[in-house]
Amino acid sequence: MPPIDIKVLSTTAMKTVFEELAPAFERATGNRLGVTLGPSLRLEKQLAEGEAADMAIVSASGARDLVAGGKMVAGSVVDIATSSIGVAVQKGAAKPDISSVEGFKRAMLEAKSIACSKPVGGGQSGVHLAKVFVELGIAAAMQAKAKYGAGGAAGLAGLVVLRGEADVGIQQMAELMAVDGIDVVGPLPPEIQMVTPFVAGIPASASHAEAGKAVIDFLITPEAKRVLKAKGLEPA
User: Fold this and answer.
1) Which of 45, 88, 98 is nearest to 183 (CA)?
2) 83: pLDDT strictly greater than 70
3) Which of 11, 38, 193, 220 has the fewest Cβ atoms surrounding its Cβ within 10 A?
C-alpha cells in the first residue's frame, strides 16, 4: 500500500511532542504526518466550518461542541494530556516568586513588558489571563505592557521573550518549554491556574479515519506518555 499522508490539526501545546514522536510513528507505520499547529480555539472554529483533517487535537470542551455539531465522530474522542499555564523569563534573569497570587501580582506589576496569547482569537491561556488580570485589579496596567504573540508555532510567547521584546512570558507550560534559551520559572499559583484537558478525535471530514485513529493510539503508548511529560504536559 502506498504511504498515506495523515492530516493532523493540533494545538500548539503539542508542537515539541510531535517533533519528537512523528519520526518514530512514520518509521513504524510507513505513513507520513502532516501536522498543522494553531491555538485550539482557532482549530475548533476551522473544524466547525468543515475544514478537512484525519485527526485533531483540541480542548475537551471544543471537542464536545464539535461532536454535538456533527463535525467530530462521536466515540472517537480520547484524552491525551492536560496542560497548565506557566511563566518564563529571559535566560539568566532573576526569577520572580510566583508561588503565591500576591507574588505573581507583584511580578506582573514589576515587569516592563509581558508576552502572552491574545485574549480574543488567540489561545486558551490568553482568554484566561485576561480574566485573572481583571480579578487582580491590574487589567489596565497589563494592557499597556502586553505583547501578543501571533498564535501558532511562530507566535510563541517564549520567542518574544527570547528576542528581548518582553521580560516575562506567560503561556501553556509546554509552549514555553518549546523555546530554547529562556528560563521557565514554573506554573501559575493554583488559585489562578487553568488546567486545559486536550483530547484527540477523528473529524467527520476525515479521508483516512483509520490512519488518524492509529495516530491517537500511538499518542497513548507508554513511550508517548514519557515524551508528553518531558515536554511539559501531564499525560492523561
Assistant:
1) 88
2) yes
3) 193
Please give the Cα distance from 86 to 190 (Å, whole number).
Answer: 11
Place 152 in a pLDDT band, splitting at 50, 70 and 90.
low
The number of helices, as runs of H, and strands, as runs of E, in the chain is: 10, 11
Q: 152-176: buried (b, 16+ CB within 10 Å) or exposed (e) per residue?
A: bbebbbbbbbbeeebbbbbbbbbbb
* CA proximity to 172, closest of 154, 160, 187, 153: 187
Say what the pLDDT of residue 222 is.
97
Measured between alpha carbons, how far is 165 from 83 in angstroms, rounded to an integer?
Answer: 25
Phi, psi (degrees; rounded to nearest 5) at 135 = -60, -35
Structural domains for the chain: 5-82+196-235 (3.40.190.10), 85-192 (3.40.190.10)
In which order are the strands placed within the sheet that holds 78-83? 32-38, 5-11, 55-59, 196-201, 78-83, 234-235
Q: Which residues contact 56 (CB under 8 A, 6 or more apart)?
A: 8, 9, 10, 43, 47, 63, 72, 200, 201, 202, 203
pLDDT at 120 over 80: no
pLDDT reading at 204 higher than 90: yes
- Nearest partner of 170 among 132, 117, 122, 106, judged by Cα: 117
Spatial separation of the C-alpha atoms in residues 170 and 108, rounded to whole Å: 10
Residue 113 CB coordination number (10 Å): 16
Is-contact 105 136, C-beta < 8 A? yes
At 225, list the grid cell: 506518555
